[in-house]
Write a structure and sequence with these properties.
This protein is α/β, with parallel strands linked by helices and 133 residues long. The protein has helices spanning 36-50, 71-85, 98-108, 115-130, and strands at residues 2-7, 12-19, 24-32, 52-59, 90-94. It has one domain: 2-Layer Sandwich (Nucleotidyltransferase, domain 5).
Length: 133
């Protein structure tokens, strides 16, 4: 099954592609988050073109207090609800430390690259790694 991984942000949404056969997530691109209708149009087009059947969305869970939800997490949950209303099969994935992983990867590449799509790939890879063999 083909999957999209998303790192949702108020300004940008990082996007990654992967599948559950190879269990490899690859950074794809960043969608500018200025117009929600445009965001959903692009996601529908991408899902159709890539044959993606599921979207994995990163959601923050604070390390210190797993029960406390942040304003950012609430915004992401609203985005997830809209994805589901639009007919997408959505799975939530803990995104704790994925931004750090992405920042480290950017640093390894000599400071080049977009962190948002790398974070999306880290989120999707964590999901794929947790799937049974």
């Amino acid at each position: 099954m083909r999957l999209l991984g998303l790192d949702y942000g108020s300004s940008r949404i990082g996007v990654a592609l992967g599948d559950d056969v190879t269990k490899v997530a690859t950074p794809w691109n960043v969608i500018v988050n200025e117009d929600m209708e445009d965001v959903f149009l692009r996601l529908h087009e991408l899902a159709a073109r890539e044959g993606a059947e599921r979207i994995v969305v990163g959601i923050p869970r604070p390390l210190a207090d797993q029960a406390r939800e942040t304003a950012q997490a609430k915004e992401i949950r609203q985005f997830i609800q809209r994805l589901r209303l639009d007919g997408f099969d959505v799975v939530e994935q803990n995104e704790t430390l994925t931004s750090k992983i992405a920042a480290d990867q950017v640093k390894e590449m000599g400071g080049r690259g977009k962190r948002d799509d790398l974070a999306a790939a880290a989120i999707l890879q964590a999901y794929l790694d947790a799937l049974p063999a």
